[in-house]
Amino acid sequence: MINEDIPNLSAFDDESLDKAFAALATQANDDAAALDGPEAVEAFRLEWLGRKQGRLNEVSSRWLKAAPPEAKKPVGERFKTLKELVERLLDQASSAGPTDAALAAEAIDVTLPGTRRLMGAEHPITRTLNELTQIFAALGYSVGVGPEVETDFYNFESMNFPPGHPARDTQDTLVIANQERRPLRDRLLLRTHTSPVQMRTMESQPPPVRIIIPGKVHRNDAADATHSPIFHQVEGLCVDTNITFSDLKGTLDHAMKALFGSSVKTRFFPSFFPFTEPSADVQISCIFCGGKGCRKCKQSGWIELLGCGMVDPAVFAFAAEKQPAYDPKKISGFAFGMGVERIAMMKYGISEIGQFYAGDMRFLGQFV
Ligand code: DAH
């Protein structure tokens, strides 16, 4: 059927050749324009490029091979151009995009709202820890950490809680099971406060020391609105020659103002901790009523926030076993410790400590 389309040539002059090849080019363009799917494209390929019966094959044998020697070149050139045209048309037809219906199915509606990317944010506890750490870093304190699984020695004994001392009962302790065969001081427990890192720090470096220790602590306490068996503390320790109680007062007064605003006042009440002597509880003027008295401060105008004191010589004596420079006759120091949850709850007006750990995005999303 196809072969009849290609007549033998009677003349091989340029004009006749141009005319004959132009007719085929027009034909190829028309055929290609009518292609409406993969099957038609395949038919087009066979019709033009088929090895045995394709038109170009026929043109090659009827026009090129039959040409007299002097016409071989002009026929060959035109043949090459035609072949390139057919191949290009075929390329375009087979790579032509999908139909309108397929396009419509894939179309993107740019007016639809996009997929919202959730912004990460610091957890309010992390934020408060960092804020406290930075306040002290600005005073020249370095940051220290210690293990959460601690020995009885560091958690209690070296902090001047001797075995059997009633002060141990104030920190209901979670202990690691099956250690009865070990000496008491080596038994493992979950640290009840960050204070043992004071001792670890002093053992590892001579004075002067200025260190701030953020960390997680554990107590066997029932959870309620303001207590959690796992919570966070920030501990501080400053040891040098001639450190006095007024250094302690000035440092903590500055820190509380940096944390809660410059109008906050502090006052120091006598207290007891085994590892400090004298010891004090620090109160700040109520940040909710400014000191006038309200429900939050139980009408007193003051809120108790942290413990502190001058490092007890007995603590220095433990440190001096490894670092003789901790000689209480030559150096002195102060320490303090505070609960991070309590501070974060005050700062952000949170009434349930459990909110910090619930992983509820409605709560956490407020801190972005
Ligand atoms: N470790 C104490 C506690 O958990 C807090 C504390 C009080 C730490 C006074 C100190 C300090 O360093 O001087 O209750």
Report, as a whole number of angstroms, the end-to-end distance.
76 Å
In N-to-C order, the SSE pattern is HHHHHHEEHEHEEHEEEHEHH
Helix percent band: 25-40%
The CATH topology label of the largest domain is BirA Bifunctional Protein, domain 2
Total strands: the figure is: 9
* Full CATH superfamily name of the largest domain: Bira Bifunctional Protein, Domain 2
Estimate the mean pLDDT confidence.
Answer: 93
Largest sheet: 7 strands, mixed
Low-confidence stretches: none
Shape assignment: rod-shaped
Give a quick set of tags describing it.
368 residues, BirA Bifunctional Protein, domain 2, 2 domains, seven-stranded mixed sheet, 12 helices, 9 strands, binds 3,4-dihydroxyphenylalanine
Protein model, in words:
This protein is 37% helix and 18% strand. The protein has twelve helices and nine strands. The strands form two sheets. A seven-stranded mixed sheet has the order 1-4-5-9-8-7-6, sandwiched between helices. Helix 1 (14-33) runs parallel beside helix 4 (72-95), helix 2 runs antiparallel to helix 4 and helix 6 packs across helix 11. The chain is rod-shaped. Residues 193, 195, 235, 273, 276, 307-309, 335-337 line the site of 3,4-dihydroxyphenylalanine (DAH).
Please give a quick description of this structure.
The chain is an alpha+beta fold and 368 residues long.
Helices and strands in order, then pairings?
Blueprint: H1 14-33, H2 38-49, H3 55-64, H4 72-95, H5 100-106, H6 124-137, E1 142-143, E2 149-151, H7 152-155, E3 188-190, H8 196-204, E4 209-218, E5 230-240, H9 245-260, E6 266-273, E7 276-285, E8 302-311, H10 313-320, E9 332-339, H11 340-348, H12 361-364
Parallel strand pairs: 1-4
Antiparallel strand pairs: 2-3, 4-5, 5-9, 6-7, 7-8, 8-9
Helix pairs in contact: 1-4, 2-4, 3-4, 6-11, 8-10
The protein binds 3,4-dihydroxyphenylalanine.
Residues 193, 195, 235, 273, 276, 307-309, 335-337 line the site of 3,4-dihydroxyphenylalanine.
